[in-house]
Amino acid sequence: MTVGYDDEGGGAPLLLVHGHPFDRSMWAPQVAAFAGPSRRVIAPDLRGYGASSVVPGVTPLSVFAEDLAALLDHLGIDGAVIGGLSMGGQIVMEFFRLFPERVRGLLLADTFPAAETEAGKAARGAMADRLLREGMAGYAEEVLTKMVAPANVEALPEVAAHVRRMMTGAPAEGAAAALRGRALRPDYAELLTRVAVPALVVVGRDDEYTPVSDAEAMHALLPDSELVVIEGAAHMPNLERPEEFDKALGAFLDRVQPVTAVQPLP
Start and end of every AB hydrolase-1 domain (predicted)? Predict the structure, then answer.
C-alpha cells in the first residue's frame, strides 16, 4: 500500500492525523510552525485520502491506527505525541487503545469519544452510498459552513477554498469506506479515564459537529488534560485560527516534550 506523508524537522516527534474528508495538507500551518531542528512533524494521508492508496469497502478505525503504527515503524520512531482532529481524533483514541506504549501525549481536537448511535450508523451508511453515487462536490458545498465558520468563509476565502479543495478532492471510495468503518467504532470514554500521558483538548467555539460541551466532557474524563476553546472558529480551528491553535499546541509540546535550545558554536 502507498502512503503519502510529510516528514519535516528532527528531534521530538509529533504525528498529526487529519479528519474526514480531508488530507494531510490540513496540517500545513502546524508543520510549518513546529518542524525544525528540535521537533519532527509527521503528517500522513490516511488510506483512502490524498496520495495514499484507496481501499474500497469498510475501513475500521483500527486499520487506520495500524497504518499509523506501521508508518512510525517505517520511520524508525518508537513513540510520539499523537494528535488528530474530528475523525482523526477518534483514530488517535483507537491508536492509544492499541498502542498505549507508543503515545507520549495526546492532542484531541474537535472530536468526541462516544460510540455511534443507531441513527448515526444509518446516516453514515446513507452518506457513504450517496458519495459513491454522486461524488464529493455536493456534500462539500453542504458542509463547508459547518467545517469553517460562516463568517470565516467570507473573511478567510483562502482557508475556505483550501477546505473545499480537500473535500472535493477526496476519493469517494475512500471517504465512503471511512464512513462505514467509523460507524462501527467503540465508545472510548472509559479508555480516556486510563490515559496516563498528558492530553490537550482543543475545540472551536462555534463547532456544530463537536460542540464545546463534548470537549468539556473529554477534559473531565482525562486525568491530566488541558482544555482550550478557540474563539472565532468552527470545526477547523487549526486553519481558521492557526495562531491561537499553535500557541496552545506549542505550550503543550513544551510541557510534554521539552527541548533544549541549540547553542551556536563560538
Answer: 13-242
Residue 21, amino acid: P
The residues, ordered by sequence, that sit 6+ positions from 260 with a Cβ below 8 Å of its Cβ are 38
Number of folded domains that form the chain: 1
Strand order in the sheet with 12-17: 5-9, 39-44, 12-17, 80-85, 103-109, 199-204, 225-230
The DSSP symbol for 262 reads: P
Closest CA to 92 of 77, 112, 117, 118: 112
In a domain, 265, yes or no: no
Residues counted in the chain: 266
Residue 67 in any domain: the answer is: yes
Among 10, 87, 8, 79, smallest CA distance to 43 is for 8
State the Cα–Cα distance between residues 245 and 249, nearest whole angstrom: 6
Quote the CA–CA distance of 75 and 73 in Å, as a whole number.
5
158: domain range? 5-256
| Residue 123 three-state SS | helix
Query: pLDDT per residue over 75-86, tens digit each?
Result: 999 999 999 999
Asked if residue 140 is part of any domain, the answer here is yes
Q: For 100-136, what is each residue's pLDDT tens digit?
A: 999 999 999 999 999 999 999 999 999 999 999 999 9
Number of Cβ within 10 Å of residue 60's Cβ equals: 17
- CATH number, domain of 29, equals 3.40.50.1820
Please report, as a single letter, which amino acid is at residue 127. M
Nearest one of 166, 152, 159, 172 to 231, comparing CA atoms: 152
